[in-house]
Amino acid sequence: MAGLKRAIDLAGRFRGVLAFVVVFLLGVFFAPVSYKTGHSTFLNWSTQNDILFEYAEYGILAAGMTLVIIAAGIDLSVGSVLGFAATLFSLLLVGYGWSAAGAIAVTVAAAAAMGMINGFIIARFRMQPFVATLGMMLVARGAAKWISGGIKVQPGAEEWYVVQSGNPRVFDWMTSQTALLGLRPITIAFVVSIVILWVVLRFTRFGRHLYAIGGNEEAARLSGIRVGAVKVAAYTLCGLTAGLAGVCNAGRVTLGDPGEAGLTYELDAIAAVVIGGTSLMGGKGGMFFTFLGTLIIAYISKILSLQGIEEAPRLMIRGALIVIAVLIQQSRKE
Amino acid sequence: MKRVGRVLVAVVVIGAALAGCGEKKGGKIVIGMSQCNLGEPWRVQMNADIKAAAAKHPEIEMVWRDAQNKTTVQQDQVKELVNLGVDLIIISPKEARPLTKPVADAVDAGIPVIVLDRKVEGDKYTCFIGGDNVKIGEEAGKFMVKLLGGKGNIVELKGLMTSTPAVERHEGFMKGIKGSQIKIIFAADCHWLEPDAQKEMASALSRFPEPDAIDAVYAHNDPSAHGAYIAAKNEGKGREKKIKFIGIDALPHEGVRYVKEGLLTATFQYPTGGAEAIECALKILRGEKVPKNIILGTRVFTKENAAKGGQAL
How many Cβ atoms are within 10 Å of A330's Cβ, its own excluded? Predict the structure, then answer.
């Protein structure tokens, strides 16, 4: 009996893994077969590779968001910051003819600065994260439209752009298959972000402080943790990942779209974090869970898409799934 | 155990929902249709036209995809259609540049691609079918000249001026009214949206309050023309009966209905190319040659001819 109880306990701890396996099996059994070959369109590396690629931007956002949520915060601005970064990156590359490395560095730094402003306002003025980042959500979207003049930044869009035709090489590179299992650089950026932030969260003092603040901010303060500085760092990292995701977005659509890049992405990022099992109340969760949460959302979306299910039932199924996932999470407390 | 039960229920519910949608197909022509945004009535009409044309050929099996106005989603869906092994792809792209490569990849994989409405870059596609906005604008301009007897003051309610169709509908119109004494006394960018058009028209009416200051309104789409009509009606001076409203697009349940009800004087059809796409698809799959670019004409709908399906121009 003790063995059985331990097994259930273990299954409980790896709920995320369990949910992931269930969704994967759904894919195996319910994805359609190819009209030509008669094989499943789900169980092949090219589809799997596509899924990792298509959801990489959400995954990168979710990785940064996890830090903030573990510290009992929230960042609603990441979608807009992504849009700003995508626009700025394209503008530097196409408009001003910068090198890829320089453009990436400046873009990511600018996005991190936006995150830092979020963190500063939240920490210094004790403002609710929801409100502060809601403000940044509008500011960043406005900034994207301002620097681009409201148009999509692509070769030839303005007469003064340095690049008038053809794709910047880095765009093609970002979506090309590398020698490493055919993974694309955008996918690799996703996996590397998860791994680095997993290490940060799991093995550094900063990571432990995030959990402490999320668990009980007052206790953390009394035990000598510099709560404000830790929060600023968390929001800065969150902005940084949004910048990286923006660079990826520009590469994927081969232009910077100030109006629509990243629109409502913050909700998908939060959903990925929550579905993975990180609590919105803070103090509980982890980076590996977020990785699973991203994959779960990605697989569900892919299966629905492969089946050609229409928008209306698709939204309902996705909504139901998020609620079910959190329900399963809460059952642990019983 | 309770937890396991919940997981099982979830699996069964979702599984059942999905299983209902999957069926095997064989011995048929499978055509994949990638629509960029089914939130716009004109695009819903395009899909309806394709569906109606495909229904006449029982051997055609359609696979539908809606990218919900997201470029990245449409890129992924084109890839999916290739993986699904469809025989031909019809795509109405959201954005030219980002979809150029997915379309080229499909062609490289041996799947013919028909591009509708908006072009992709380069020439890696099988066939393009689209309307001619310059011509439509020009016809609207000529119609306006005739309607007003060559002289009058008008308001132009433009579509989103960062989009090509709006720019072309404006240029064509200017060409159409060239040489006449028609003056545009007020113009505004209404982003294709009826509420915006209503607001802009209200401003125009208060800037020009004299009863006969405005003779006509040229709107780049029917919802904007309709919005202008509503604004004039809301003003409460009865000017909606004097001012002539002209729109573009002529969707059956939208512009054509407004014309039949007498709200708009005329609307010019912007063809979806849906029916032509299916004809073209069958030709391609039979191995016949098709033109690389097919430009469609337009039709004008007025109160007199609306019931008969308009008049070709």
Answer: 9
In degrees, rounded to 5, the angle at the alpha carbon of residue A41 between the alpha carbons of residues A35 and A45 is 140
Q: Select from B1, B2, B7 the residue whose CB has the most chain A CBs within 10 Å, as the one to mutate to test that interface.
A: B7
Residue A90 belongs to domain spanning: 41-333
- Residue A265: name the closest of A16, A53, A65 by CA: A65
Q: For chain B, which domains are there?
A: 27-125 (3.40.50.2300), 133-271+304-312 (3.40.50.2300)
* Closest CB to A47 among B18, B71, B83: B83
Residue of B37, B80, B100 to mutate, interface with A, max A Cβ within 10 Å: B80
Interface touch A253/B17, C-beta < 8 Å: no
- Which residues contact residue A62 at a Cβ distance below 8 angstroms, ignoring those fewer than 6 apart? A268, A269, A270, A272, A273, A276, A290, A293, A294
In DSSP terms, which residues pair with A173 in a beta bridge? Answer: none
Asked whether the beta carbons of residue A30 and residue B95 sit closer than 8 angstroms, the reply is no
Over residues A205-228, the pLDDT tens digits come to: 999 999 999 999 999 999 999 999
pLDDT, block means (10 residues), chain B with 313 residues: 53 50 60 91 92 95 91 93 94 92 95 94 94 95 96 94 87 96 93 88 91 96 94 91 96 91 95 95 95 94 92 90
> With an 8 Å Cβ cutoff, are B77 and A47 in contact?
no
Q: Which residues, listed in sequence order, are joined to residue B157 by a DSSP beta bridge? A: B188, B219
Domain assignment of residue A263, yes or no? yes
Tokens in use for B89? 């792809």
For the purposes of burial, counting CB atoms within 10 Å of the CB of A120, is it exposed (0-12), middle (13-18) or buried (19 or more)? middle
| CB contact at 8 A, A165 and A155 | yes
> Which CATH number is A225's domain given?
1.10.3470
Q: Which residues of B touch A26 (CB under 8 A)?
A: 11, 14-15, 18
Tally of domains in chain A: 1
Q: Is residue A34 part of a domain?
A: no
Residue A224: CB atoms within 10 A of its CB come to 7
Tokens at residue B46, please? 């395009």
Q: How many CB atoms lie within 10 A of CB A113?
A: 15
Residue A239 backbone dihedrals phi, psi, to 5 degrees: -65, -40
A36 within domain boundaries: no
Q: pLDDT tens, A239-272?
A: 999 999 999 999 988 889 898 899 889 999 999 9
Helices (H), chain B: 2-19, 41-55, 71-84, 96-108, 133-148, 164-177, 194-207, 222-235, 255-260, 274-285
A311 within some domain: yes
